[in-house]
Amino acid sequence: MRAVIVEVPGYRLAEPLGAGATGVVYAANRLSDGRSVAVKVVHPELVDPQYRDRLRREARLAAAVEHPGLVRVHAVGGEGDQAWLVMDRLSGPDLQRLLDEGGPLPVDRAVAMLAEVAAAVDAMHAAGVIHRDLKPANIILDGDRPTVADFGVARQLASLESSTGMDLSGGAAWLRSGTPSGPSLGAMAGTVAYMAPEQWRGDPVSAATDVYALGGTLFSLLTGRRPFDRRTLPELAYAVAMLPPPAPSEYGVPAAFDQVVRTAMAKEPADRYPTAGAFAQALRAAAAGDVAPVVVKQRGWTRRRIGKWVAIAAPVLVIGGVTATILAQGNQQPTQLTVCAQDATVRDAPRSRTVIATVHHGDRLTPISPRDGAAWVHVRLPDGRSGWSLTDYVRHQC
Per its UniProt record, what InterPro entries does this chain match (predicted)? Predict the structure, then answer.
């Protein structure tokens, strides 16, 4: 864990309970009465006067909301490059730990939990606070009740660099080396996997940003996988910018939930559910099998819209050596696949690091077997060798 200050006036800090993109959470006791609490110490590099003022303002707003699904904030403080806040200490695990240890949740349990979470998020939105970092790791069980933590703590993300916590200015070796794989997501994936497109672009966030994260969290609870699960940052940036939201039904989940995820994770904020409460209603309706068609505005691929997605994908993809084009699946299904990316790799197995060939835009490959989920396809090369390629990069039509 990253080194941070370990003295907070009025509190005795003990062992770290966890660390994330914004700070380290410690078990602590309040000296005045011995009460057991949790103290989050924000990473110093994120702290400036503007951030500290916003943290205090949002903590006051959060404290004014009485909802059993929200972790209460008791105090906020700090000077210079220090910022910390004192919260309820909960004994239960977070939902990411449940997924890591036990796999996907039963549908009825996932629906019940996330509907409660959405109600808590809706209450906080009504108070004018946006979470910005909603994900399974920030939903903690208090007994059997899911409780949302870290509301208003995550810094508003102004760039891809600040959002990922990576040094993209030249300090990262993968930038200088030009390796095509780019950086491995690793622990960083727990945050960026649930980030809405507007956060990647550095645009202002809104309640719709949290609705997107609710959709991604629903997908994870139902399938045990992260949305757009990719090994590298360039691959993830491309998926968020260009690919349709993932479908839970591809992993054996009832198809009614596909529409909920698809609407919540729409690329444009205006195309998502208008509130977290509306998301919860749609979620319960899907569980009951009572799903009315949702009419979503279909936005054409105008030059302006293409430019917005290129603003996300192009810098990351070019840096990572994976310059990609917009892919479109046609109604015709030719027997051969075409490489639609500038360059793509063929590997000896799905998600393997062993590359057996590099193919280029326009090359033709022959599909051998059905896709592994929606991510990989088994192909035969023109020289007779076979391997696996990401379906993002090889399609029936480009």
Answer: Kinase-like_dom_sf, Prot_kinase_dom, Protein_kinase_ATP_BS, Ser/Thr_kinase_AS
Reply yes or no on domain 95-287 having CATH 1.10.510.10.
Answer: yes
Q: Which of 133, 150, 210, 363 is an active site residue?
A: 133
Q: Which class in CATH covers the domain with range 11-88?
A: alpha beta
Q: Is 40 a known ligand-binding residue?
A: yes
The correct answer on CATH 2.30.30.40 for the domain covering 325-395 is yes
Query: What pLDDT does residue 55 have?
Result: 74
The reported pLDDT for the residue numbered 230 is 81
Asked if 133 is an active-site residue, the reply is: yes
Average model confidence (pLDDT) across the chain = 76
Span 220-249, mean pLDDT? 88
- What value does the mean pLDDT take over residues 92-106? 92
Contact 42, 83 (CB under 8 A): yes
- pLDDT higher at 153 or 340: 340
Extents of the domains making up the chain: 11-88, 95-287, 325-395
